Amino acid sequence: MKRRDFVKLSSLLSAGTVLPFTNLSAWQKDKVYQIGILGYGDRGSGLHQVLRQMPDKFVVKAICDDLPLRLENARKNYPNGIQFYQDFRKLLDQKDLDIILVATPLYLHFEHAKAVLDSGKHLFLEKTMVFNVDQAMELNALKKKFAKQVIQIGHQYRYSPLYFRVKEMIQNGWLGDVTQIEARWDRNNNWRRPVPNTELERKINWRMYREYSGGLVAELLSHQIDFIHWAFETRPSTIYGVGGIDHYKDGRETFDNVQVTLRYEDVGMVGNFGATCANQHEGYSFKIKGSQGMISLLTNEGIFYPEPDTKTHLEEVDGVSGATRLSWSNDKKGIKILDQPTKDGSYYALEDFYRCLTENELPHSNTINGGKTAITVALANQSIYTGKIMNWKPEFDLV
Predict the structure, then answer these.
(1) pTM across the whole model
(2) Which residue among 92, 94, 251, 396 is the one 20 to 30 A from 383 at the CA level?
């Protein structure tokens, strides 16, 4: 790397938080979109809280969930101004809604997404986009039929200022040749929810059952997998996974311990993605290893650990009179990628959703890249449960 490149890298790492997308003009901000939330579990209710921070852009006018207990809790919190439904078809019939935000269990995503589009409303569909390969291909094909409606998929790392900057570092070659990805999302928790009666077991604990859930790969690791697709402009060529029900012997079907290895032949890289429900020490960890340095990421902070030669050159640049000082980590071995806190990634994703709605633009997280991530997750689960190596097929390269 030439000296001028070290100066550029130093300037990037010492810059403040910058939103990756341009602000809207004043006239565009006059529109406030009315939203209905379909699925009011942890994610749906959590996104409601984010939307409440954006009253000049969105207002929630309806909530739908087929579990009465969730609707009862929502009514207590929002006694006025919101309609409540147990049948999602009645939600879609509400004429004043512009958008439906779908946060239902994964196995329902395709059915609900298609119904929203058929109703003529815009769609914000939580990740993972859909449950299986065929659904991913079909929903992406439907975007042409519903071209006037905006469809955004909820992979929020594509909107985070931190992750956007990491992508910039990767694309500019400042990590050198990246050959290894190590990503984990661990917890010491069984993921099981209490149920008021046994008849609701599968409805409430749908994540435990293969008929409804993509397990740890879909619920957690899809975030990191999607970021790798975006940052390196790639997708896996081969996929191999292993796992088991190794800790919680409670009747579940989805594995509580998984490891997936993805080979990215086009960029010469191996990705290792793992999760366990039996140890929380590492929690969320995400390491991107290159010949000139490694990036270690959390959800809202990141540190660049330069290799020895790179570190020496950056310290020389850092010491030049007039140069912006780098913000070194506490151990003095790494450099903070952003020295300012960021908001919840969903906030940035919804802000840009607003931009796409007002300007009728294709979201950065859409059915093409969301579909490829959903296909990767589905293939990973096929490998985990069958023991077979899965290969990417040309028809999976959605356009």
Answers:
(1) 0.94
(2) 251
DSSP 79-144: -SS-EEESSHHHHHH-TT--EEEE-S-GGGHHHHHHHHHHTT-EEEEESS--SSHHHHHHHHHHHH
Is the distance from CB of 271 to CB of 264 less than 8 angstroms? yes
Question: Percent of the chain, pLDDT > 70?
Answer: 93
Burial class, 271, CB count within 10 angstroms (exposed 0-12 / middle 13-18 / buried 19+):
buried
Are 60 and 162 contained in the same domain? Answer: no
Q: Is the pLDDT of residue 22 over 60?
A: no
| 3 state DSSP class of 370 | helix
Q: Which of 161, 156, 148 is nearest to 120 (CA)?
A: 148
Crossing angle for the helix pair 3-14 and 161-171, nearest 10 degrees?
A: 170
Q: Are residues 131 and 183 in the same domain?
A: no
pLDDT bucket at 399, cuts 50 / 70 / 90: very high
For the residues 372-377, what does the mean pLDDT come to?
A: 98
Do 127 and 167 share a domain, yes or no? no
Residue 338 and residue 229 share a domain: yes
Q: Count helices and strands (H / E) in the chain.
A: 13, 15
> Would you say residue 357 lies in a domain?
no
Whether residue 150 is found in the same domain as residue 279: no
320-369: per-residue pLDDT in tens?
A: 644 567 888 888 899 999 878 888 999 999 999 999 999 999 999 999 99
**Alpha carbon distances (Å) from 128 to 135, 303, 393:** 12, 27, 20
Asked if residue 210 and residue 151 are part of one domain, the reply reads no
| Domains: count for the chain | 2
Identify whether residues 100 and 227 lie together within a single domain.
no
Q: Domain range holding 309?
A: 3-16+158-344+366-396
Q: Which residue has the tokens 């402009």?
A: 233
Residue 26: per-residue pLDDT: 44
pLDDT of amino acid 20:
65
Residues 42 and 12 in one domain: no
Q: Return all residues near 41 (Cβ < 8 A) that are at least 6 apart.
A: 65, 70, 103
What is the pLDDT, as a whole number, of residue 320? 63
384/255 Cα distance (integer angstroms): 9
**Last residue within a domain, chosen from 126, 155, 184:** 155
